[in-house]
Design goal:
The protein has 443 residues and is α/β, with parallel strands linked by helices. It contains 13 helices and 21 strands. The strands form six sheets. It has a six-stranded parallel β-sheet with strand order 2-1-3-4-5-6, with helices on both faces. The longest helix is centred in the C-terminal third of the chain and has 24 residues, at 348-371. It is globular. 5'-deoxyadenosine binds at residues 49-50, 161-162, 258, 260, 298, 300, 329, 331-332, 334.
Length: 443
């Protein structure tokens, strides 16, 4: 029996893609390996979003080269967003890599594995497709309570800092009926939470249907306890989407709303298509229609040309919106993007200083928002054992906050009432609500 091993870097889309590749490998007669040392085929599913992500892959390839010296028959494949970027380097200098496959080429994998036996050269396919959505492929899902379901691929927004439109190509959506069918299958396999995925998840459109209709259809699948989705673009958030979220109890009350920057000039240079005040109004509108909604965001520090005053506006938007959590990044120039060609790149020290300010402000907001939850009884989906103690469970609230609480009689997959007693760092701490205890009102 041949064994495969996949290491996944980057976003959830890559996690879902790795599950597709696992499905293809298993159809080809391979079984999963416990580690790279036991694998006949090793894949790195790569990320190109920031330079640091690429550096990690280069150093990992160095280790795999040594592994292959000892076991020359091992197949090494590089998949995903870095494919295009590294293909010349691989062809010229890294012949120990057997395949380089871009995000739209995974269907070729079984045929390539067979062909591999006849050729010593690296095989490279980084072509992007206008149509490939991997319909009719069966992902081999990682165990757990959450199933990732990819609903659209690619991005047409072309934010000037972002490599994704180049690495993953044009936007295309799956047919609604097949998404619903995949959700039904996931539920039949025991998954209780569904996360709909896309680079621009809410610009989904297929055969006249748009994202709110898809959300509604998925929420009607029996036994789906929770539905989440990521990552939306503010431009495509509309009332219809918010109304479906409000009206369907199993759609979670949380929205990821990437801000990126707070000043109108920088937003414009980023090609983000909204202004500072439009963003703030949208956040207010979300909280108005969806009271208690968890709001998370992405923010970039030190975009080319960003002045101190402009950066201060990012902090100001954060103060106004009070996000529940934020992913914060230093701007990282990506070859081939428009922003990389802009003048006035910001020094590493200034970027680092600004990033630190973002982190500190968000830590304060997260704690404040979490302290508001203390005393409430909230529904928590029990997901896994706490990393810190085998006596505790970890699960998330509807509005996407992690809660740690003593196990008691609760089991994994239970949607259970937990009374929040404390907030520390980014987590909440709670205790199982007593049976018969009146739940506190949830604001
Ligand atoms: N530099 C820094 N952060 C970036 N992101 C995307 N491209 C870059 C870049 N070149 C961030 C954005 C995006 C998140 C997924 O990654 O904030 O929303
Ligand atoms: Fe990148 Fe912007 Fe597309 Fe998101 S919307 S993937 S940040 S180009």
């Amino acid at each position: 029996m041949k064994r495969y091993y996949i290491e996944t870097y980057g976003c959830q889309m890559n996690v879902a893609d790795s599950e597709l590749v696992s499905g293809l490998m298993e159809q080809s007669g391979y079984v999963p390996a416990e580690s790279e040392y036991e694998a006949d085929a090793i894949f790195l599913n790569t990320c190109a979003i920031r330079e640091h992500a690429e550096e990690k892959i280069h150093s990992r390839l160095g280790t795999l080269r040594k592994l292959k010296e000892g076991r020359p028959e091992t197949i090494i494949g590089l998949l995903g967003c870095m494919a295009q970027h590294v293909k010349d380097d691989i062809l010229e200098h890294k012949s120990y890599v057997d395949f380089v496959l871009g995000p739209d080429s995974y269907r070729r994998l079984p045929a390539l594995l067979r062909r591999q036996k006849e050729t010593a050269n690296s095989i490279v396919d980084t072509r992007l497709s206008r149509f490939e959505v991997y319909e009719n492929l069966y992902p081999s899902r990682n165990e757990g309570i959450n199933a990732w379901v990819s609903i659209m691929r690619g991005c047409d927004k072309f934010c000037t800092f972002c490599i994704v439109p180049f690495t993953r190509g044009r936007e295309r959506s799956r047919i609604m009926a097949s998404i619903v069918e995949e959700v039904e299958q996931a539920v039949a396999q025991g998954f209780v939470e569904i996360t709909l995925l896309g680079q621009n998840v809410n610009s989904y459109r297929s055969e006249g249907s748009r994202f709110p209709e898809l959300l509604h259809a998925v929420s009607e699948v029996p036994a789906v306890e929770r539905i989440r989705f990521t990552s939306p673009h503010p431009q495509d958030v509309d009332d219809e989407m918010l109304f479906v979220m409000r009206d369907r109890p199993n759609i979670c009350n949380s929205v990821h709303l990437p801000l990126q920057a707070g000043s109108d000039r920088i937003l414009n240079r980023m090609n983000r298509t909204y202004t500072k005040s439009e963003f703030i109004s949208l956040a207010e509108r979300i909280r108005h229609i969806l009271p208690g909604c968890g709001l998370s965001t992405d923010i970039i520090a030190g975009f080319p040309g960003e002045t101190e005053e402009e950066f201060a506006q990012t902090l100001e938007v954060m103060e106004r919106v009070n996000f529940d959590s934020a992913f914060t990044f230093k701007y990282s120039p990506r070859p081939g993007t428009k922003a990389e060609e802009y003048s006035n790149h910001i020094s590493e020290e200034v970027k680092q200083g600004r990033l630190q300010q973002l982190i500190e402000l968000q830590a304060r907001h997260t704690l404040e928002r979490n302290q508001n939850e203390i005393g409430k009884t909230v529904k928590v989906l029990v997901e896994k054992e706490s990393k810190k103690s085998s006596a505790d469970w970890a699960g998330r609230t509807d509005n996407n906050k992690w809660v740690i609480f003593p196990k008691g009689a609760a089991q994994i997959r239970d949607l259970t009432d937990v009374r929040i007693v404390a907030a520390k760092g980014v987590s909440l701490f709670g205790e199982l609500a007593q049976i018969g205890e009146m739940p506190h009102a949830v604001a």
